[in-house]
Amino acid sequence: MITKEEVIEMLAKFSNEERTLSMRKSCPTSLNIYGVSVPHIKQVAKEIVGITKLNKIDERKHLAFELSKSDIFECQCAGFEYIKLQKDILNNVSKNDLEYLGSHLDNWVSVDTFSVYINGFLWNKGVITIDEIKKRLESPDVWQRRIAVVSTVPLNQKSNGGKGDTKQTLEICEMVIADKHPLITKALSWALRELSKRDKESVMMFYRANENKLSPHVKREVLNKIITGKKN
């Protein structure tokens, strides 16, 4: 069985100092950053899948969790990618596992990867309920609140198995209108724009009903998406 240390060595081969500096600015985090690009992180995750394909699910799940709890940013992301690529692991993630995986996230990239690939996917599958999503919105931790909002994205995203869920998406969006933290308003914009691909009329109705409460950039991005099909 490949070890976490060996995976780190695989990622380190693609490290880039210039990208490290760029990531430090665009994605502040307490984690160590090697400066590995997203395509290379995905490449390493696929390689790990191939290397471990004959291992038992418990062994692969253990590796995935070790990677996702690493103090290295790219290793954490590779862990989430590794889980996403193996449906038997993904379908074996429990509610306690979700709390564990989502409890030590401190940057928007890791949060969004976890939310779309794992938390939102399992919500879409009925493993967790909207009430459990709402509990995250009660947290003073902005990352937990962002998880709740971004987890609506795979409900409406074809590439992640979403078939469209206007009711639950707008219910969560309604609950964060008053939350003006930039990380939440950006997540709200994303959630509404993704839903607009499925149900433009309902998003437009939501927009009109809440126009005076929405942040300026949310109004601009959502309206542009509805009218032009583009964010900006």
Characterise the protein shown here:
The structure is a single chain. With 232 residues, the protein is mainly alpha-helical. It folds into two domains: 1-92, Leucine-rich Repeat Variant; 107-232, Alpha Horseshoe (Leucine-rich Repeat Variant), CATH 1.25.10. The chain is 67% helix and 0% strand. It has 15 helices and no strands. It has helices at residues 4-12, 17-26, 38-51, 57-68, 73-84, 87-90, 95-101, 108-124, 130-137, 142-150, 153-156, 166-175, 182-196, 200-210, 216-228. The mean pLDDT is 95.
Features:
232 residues, mainly alpha, Leucine-rich Repeat Variant, 15 helices
Can you give me a brief rundown of this structure?
The protein is an all-alpha fold.
Name the shape in a single word.
globular
Structural class: mainly alpha
Question: What is the CATH C-level name of the largest domain?
Answer: Mainly Alpha
- Say what the CATH topology of the largest domain is: Leucine-rich Repeat Variant
Distance between the termini: 46 Å
Which strand-content bin applies to the residues? Answer: under 5%
Spans with pLDDT under 50 lasting ≥5 residues?
A: none
Tell me the series of helices and strands, N- to C-terminal.
HHHHHHHHHHHHHHH
Secondary structure: helix percent: 55-70%
If you average the pLDDT, what whole number results? 95
The helix tally amounts to: 15
Tally of domains: 2
* Beta strands, count: 0
- Return the CATH architecture of the largest domain: Alpha Horseshoe
Return Rg in Å.
18 Å
Largest sheet, described in full? none
